Amino acid sequence: MLGMVLAPLGRAQGPSSNVHFFAGGLNNPRGLKFGPDGNLYVAEGGAGGQTSTVGQCEQVPVPIGPYTGGYTGRISKIDKFGNRTTVADKLPSSQTAPTQGSLVSSVGDVAFIGNTLYAILAGAGCSHGLAGTSNGVIKVIRTERGP
């Protein structure tokens, strides 16, 4: 029988020398796409929240639920210099029970059709702590500041 030698764990290493930090200030980033304007758009899950709908509707069962929610999801735009601006915010964001790590659901990804920005929203609804909200595809209406 061959013996196995386990090497001690080495120090954690940083990224390779060809990786450089580009943009920060993101809260639980998910999908990203370049827009027709050349900027990078990022779906952000946010931080969930503490709103509970226990007793108001059917809940996701333990151990995953009950969920709690808030309106911390957003979509950010990052310019060619790495500057982040908010395109849409206060989107539904929910999280699993703390025993499951408080995993967040919210804006999962973004896409463009022509110049129109769309996003997929998950983690909404009464069962996720956010009565009066729904999962689905959202369309971001163009405003004076973007997208």
Which word captures the global form? Answer: flat
Strand content: 35-45%
Q: DSSP helix count?
A: 0
- Please estimate the helix content: under 10%
Order of strands in the sheet with the most strands? 1-2-3-4-5
- H/E element string? EEEEEEEE
The largest sheet, given as strand count, sense and whether it forms a barrel, is: 5 strands, antiparallel
Low-confidence stretches: none
- How many DSSP-defined strands? 8
Beginning-to-end CA distance, first to last residue: 64 Å
Mean pLDDT, to the nearest integer, reads 91
Radius of gyration: 19 Å
Main structural class = mainly beta
Task: Give me the secondary-structure topology.
Elements: E1 29-34, E2 40-44, E3 68-78, E4 84-95, E5 104-105, E6 107-113, E7 116-121, E8 136-140
Antiparallel strand pairs: 1-2, 2-3, 3-4, 4-5, 6-7, 7-8
In short:
This protein is mainly β and 147 residues long. The protein has no helices and 8 strands.
Task: Give short descriptive properties of this protein.
single chain; 147 residues; mainly beta; 8 strands; flat
Structure description:
This protein is mainly beta. The chain has no helices and 8 strands. The strands form 2 sheets. Strands 1-2-3-4-5 form a 5-stranded antiparallel beta sheet, with no helix packed on it. A 3-stranded antiparallel beta sheet has the order 6-7-8, with no helix packed on it. The radius of gyration is 19 Å and the shape is flat.
